[in-house]
């Protein structure tokens, strides 16, 4: 191939990024610049989303992710797209995903924010152990008359759960429907089950699962089972394991958790 245009470069970068080869994607991005091919909005957008997809599929931040994010960020700042809100939102999400919260906040502070911007920054802080900052940002979001989405609420519940703020998580959970007209999805119920379990309220967690407005999945039951292991609730843990298996017969993790529960608990508590 003698001559490669922006479309060709973008396709190659996307292919490497989606397959987790971020070092090679970065190399191609740099080579594109050296060959004088100027990235357009589509190039930036596709590259960003490819990296985000690769990161989410990996389950953890792949090696080279932050380096590539910074390289593309610098390129955007030097281009005509530095004020493009769509690209800025992707930058906030990218930095939040890899835990570079300082850079995420820096970009967030300079852009014309919409609900996507707020979602990304709240989620970034919630997922990386900065729950109190996430809650502060959520309150600021509400004060700025930006209506939260289900994704925002999930981040808030996650933050509360990790901080042990059970009562506040209840309030936020109830306010989804009451204040914002958002019906909690299964992910929100799971988050509440996790928060209750972390607080040792395994009976209440089980009750919440049983009263869900939809059929509980294996993840919900496994979340309860994990809490039962932590708090030595043997009988309830056995029930949770059975329900998890009924929901997904391919899952094996319930047996590992149940075995751990039965082998380590000093005495079963209902």
UniProtKB/TrEMBL annotation:
Gene Ontology molecular function: RNA binding
Organism annotation: Selaginella moellendorffii
Pfam family, one: PPR_2
Protein name: Pentacotripeptide-repeat region of PRORP domain-containing protein
Record PANTHER family: DYW DOMAIN-CONTAINING PROTEIN, PENTATRICOPEPTIDE REPEAT-CONTAINING PROTEIN
Keyword annotations of the record: Repeat
PPR repeats: 5-39, 114-148
A single BP term in Gene Ontology: RNA modification
